[in-house]
Design brief:
three-stranded antiparallel β-sheet; alpha+beta; elongated; 3 helices
Length: 160
């Protein structure tokens, strides 16, 4: 808890901030234009949903290196064509970590996935339109994942 003086001079004596590590979210796209997605259980929402590869950035690790590592660990896919789409706070008031968003083009399967044992998941290739539908229907519950998908679509990196 901290005391905060707002720009208008008002003092908030009990302001809480949530400190979480930064993380990377990846929109991997195959040469055929399919998105490499995941079906993954997340206990915070207590259900399985459609996700994109993502994970925490380790201390001292560069965001791109974390993105490359997470894509490979979770999906077995790799890419040599990476583009950073930006870094965004999850909650402007509370902090909650910064999402570093990347698109990985011409993604190719190089090995079997090796996810963390606490992250049961299924790799699923999907047409971009199906990923958008998952976002619009609430099947994709992670806001950072929805935002990453929309950034990739809006920037023309992924063709709907």
């Amino acid at each position: 808890m901290e005391e905060v003086r707002l720009p208008n001079g008002r003092i908030v004596s009990d302001f809480y901030q949530v400190e979480l590590p930064d993380f990377a979210v990846i929109v991997p796209v195959t040469a055929e234009g399919l998105v490499v997605g995941l079906r993954q259980y997340k206990h915070g929402v207590r259900r399985t949903s459609t996700m994109l590869p993502a994970g925490l950035i380790h201390e001292g690790e560069e965001p791109l290196a974390a993105a490359q590592r997470e894509l490979f660990e979770e999906t077995g896919y790799a890419s040599s064509q990476w583009h950073e789409l930006g870094a965004f706070v999850v909650d402007g008031n509370r902090g909650c970590g910064r999402a570093h968003v990347f698109v990985a083009l011409a993604a190719r399967r190089d090995s079997e996935p090796s996810p963390d044992e606490l992250e049961p998941l299924e790799v699923a290739l999907a047409r971009p339109a199906d990923m958008v539908r998952a976002a619009l229907t609430g099947e994709m519950v992670g806001l950072a994942h929805v935002a990453a998908l929309m950034l990739a679509l809006g920037g023309g990196w992924v063709k709907k």
